[in-house]
Amino acid sequence: MSDVGGTAVAFAHVSKSYPIYTSPRLRLKELATFNRRSFHTDYWALRDVSFEVKRGETFCIVGENGCGKSTLLQICAGILQPTEGEMAVNGHVSALLELGSGFNPEFTGRDNVFLNGAIVGFSRKQMEARFHEIEAFAEIGDFINRPVKTYSSGMMVRLAFSVAIHVDPEILLVDEALAVGDVYFRQRCVRKVHELRARGITILFVSHATGDVKALGDRALWLQRGRVMELGRTDLVVSKYLAAMQQKDTEYRGQEPATRGQMPDARSQTPVEVVEGIPNIDHRFGDARAEVIGIAVMDADGRRLSALQNNSTIVVRISVKAKSNIDRPIVGFMFRNHLGVDFAGTNTAREGYDLPPLPIDGVCTVDFYLDLPVLYASLFSFSPAVAEGTLEHYVMCDWIDNAIVLPMEKSEAPIYGQLHFPCRIQINSKIGADKTGASRIGAAAEIS
Questions:
Q1: What CATH number does domain 266-407 carry, 2.70.50.60, 3.30.413.10, 3.40.30.10, 2.170.150.70?
Q2: For position 263, what pLDDT does the model report?
């Protein structure tokens, strides 16, 4: 396969199988026949996987444990070869796969840095030029001169990640490595990944942290039992993956909706204000026993908004309609930023409000009054939903991703980070001795 159109990684109908023996004796028996007879069964970790990753793209892979994510990255790294299909990697690869892989536990951290450099083709002089940066980013102190077998899992990943990003990779493979890191180091790693993206480094990122996947990924691949379930825009792929996981959890709990008799006339449940119309549908899922029929975002006086304002009160109005009897309806929404990261969300059960049962064709409208903080100027979306059950155990009836998207107007003062907390400041000072000679400490001047 050739590098066409700036392709960094390409898989074409790749499959990978492992032989499974019920006992070691059968393995020896098969060897004795020079593999002319088979005494094993094939386990297919990957089955007919095809995708392309462009240069400079951050490509995320999601899926349950055992779906083939790690096998896929190991094939990219050249550790494994596909059983079927073709694979091409165009560029210098740096891989952060299994925790501590490539490290000799008896060697010191310093020795392992040079060992890893030699493995990827760097001379000792080249690694010496990079060593200070590697040591500074890892921040493991004197442990850099101690055997790796004395490291904690967090220290191991600190050093491994630092080495991986400082050997000038053109393609960086990261397999769930940040899951064992502390919050401080994870934040530094995410910032570093953003920096690598800006430099045009291709990144293949495997993680169960869907928030990180949404924030980092340009596109995503969902694997299930070794097969491609979905490939495309990150937020859509993650939404479908999470919907499937929720459905699986519901089936595991064995929660089935209760069957009730016919409810009273639906018109008695219909409120005066019903909002109809959904401006946008990126993705929709649920069992369809109830559906969201409309959403609107308004100011406190009921006027529909075309933009959000900081330090203001808004009303998120959601109307839902039952297609079957819903005994314990829950209505809510998720508030997301422009990266598709779930920024905040709520629902009627979370706020302690129990909605009355909805009969067939019954309509309910819920108004959520929100006091917006000071947020950075960007696009924000509202994803409405209706479910049945309790806050802990529920079945999703209808969820609509990014049903309405509104810009946040720019704040007069700069926003550091994602939002500005309401804040008051006190300046505490030590006051000199008063007329009686006693010192007064802790006087404070308050600034509102």
A1: 2.70.50.60
A2: 36
